[in-house]
Amino acid sequence: MNLLISNDDGVFAQGIRTLANTLAAAGHSITVVCPDRERSATGHGLTIHQPIRAEIVESGFHPSIKAWACSGTPADCVKLALGALVEEPPNFVLSGINHGPNLGTDVLYSGTVSAAMEGVIEGIPAIALSLGSYVHQDFLPAAHVAQALLAHFSQTPLTVPLLLNVNVPAAKASHLRGIQITRQGIRRYHDLFEKRLDPRGKTYYWLAGEVLEDVEDPIGNQGWSEETAQALRPVSTDVQAVKENYISITPLQYNLTSLAGLPQLQTAIADPAKLFSSFVHNV
Question: What is the domain count for the chain?
Fold first, then answer.
């Protein structure tokens, strides 16, 4: 397969080098375009007020890999690669392997997930890969999960482009319990900001806090019909699956329209023309 790989941990991160080198050794054609430094938690930000630069990386990757370090965000990297650096669209866009999990609502902030989502926006299926630990250093199990997924989808292609958000517990392959197809859960944090004083006595804040893994099931606050809720309840959340030592694979999309919210809003604003007339009257 022809693959484009990016990340948000930067060109020197062990995760992306393990992923790219493993897939290159398996015979895939690899192009790497990733940030020249760590750009974690940048979400889907784009660089529009300054130039984006890309430089060829000549060491650290398998000899067959074409690698670039980009001055922009993870989303910039994939957008630049697809628009200017690769000669033809890849079969898949991969992002990671992130050093740390991307579970639940964290995907809204994740540069790893956003890089992969940029591929889906362009109609290319994508996989975001994360290792469920910030200290564990063995990225090979996650790289082999990617290899297995690509082999599977080469035989059974996806019918529509999806972003598969894959989280691999930080454990030896022999200790993993299996793979679960999951839905997005919720992650919350407490004591989110630390208040500090700089040497001149001025207050500043440092984003910190500890994650709360055991939080409410998102089914309860989405406004879904009972029929939809009943269908989803047997499906584990990504947070729960990883906690139980399963590899979690969650299909994500970029269309954030609330299907449950549409009829609710149509009922709440039954006469949009009347609301618009009220707006015009007050202008």
Answer: 1
